[in-house]
Design goal:
Elements (H helix, E strand, L loop, with lengths): L4 H18 L2 E2 L6 E2 L1 H29 L19 H18 L7 H30 L6 H8 L4 H18 L7
Antiparallel strand pairs: 1-2
Helix pairs in contact: 1-2, 2-3, 2-6, 3-4, 4-5, 4-6
Length: about 180
């Protein structure tokens, strides 16, 4: 797989933006609300499936090698952190958003809206599964799936809807100007 210098630059930019978004946060128990997902959405919408997913792989990789880019720091031990599933969800979510949006030469607002909504569902699904497994099998705290959804998804829906709308507006205006990767 070969990537141009432009592709590598944009991919790195979105990895860094996602890292910056980790530190713009509103605290909640266990899982803080951050602007990370805004940059995940934008990476998929503007870079396409490959570029969006690659930017998030780079972001997760930076954190796992020890750079403190995650909301709770960094390092290989972060795999055992309750929020690690959401980070894996970022990769899959960016890919899904890119996959849907790149089906159109000039995606309209509604396509970006549907793509970001779908990507959000993927992030929630992967993240919730990771949080459930972590709490029940690593942290040793019994939690039902409903409890995990109650504190790992529900508090973030309103903020994610705003981020989805913002991404769809922005991407529909500038997305056509960027050549897909």
């Amino acid at each position: 797989m070969r990537f141009s210098a432009r592709t590598m630059t944009l991919t790195a930019l979105f990895a860094v933006l996602t890292a910056v978004g980790a530190f713009i946060r509103i605290p909640f128990p266990l899982v803080p609300m951050t602007l990370q997902t805004l940059f995940v959405f934008l990476s998929g919408a503007l870079l396409g499936s490959r570029g969006g997913a690659l930017s998030q792989v780079l972001y997760v990789g930076m954190g796992l090698i020890g750079l403190p880019v995650f909301t709770g720091g960094g390092g290989p031990q972060y795999i055992l952190h309750p929020t690690f599933g959401y980070l894996l969800g970022f990769i899959a979510g960016a890919w899904v958003i890119g996959f849907i949006s790149e089906r159109f030469e000039k995606p309209p607002f509604l396509v970006y809206l549907a793509a970001c909504f779908s990507g959000t569902l993927v992030i929630y699904a992967v993240g919730t599964a990771g949080l459930y497994l972590n709490l029940n099998f690593i942290a040793g705290k019994e939690a039902t799936l409903r409890q995990v959804i109650d504190f790992g998804v529900i508090p973030f829906i309103a903020g994610d809807i705003l981020k989805i709308l913002g991404t769809a507006v922005l991407a529909s205006r500038v997305g056509a100007r960027l050549k897909r990767i």
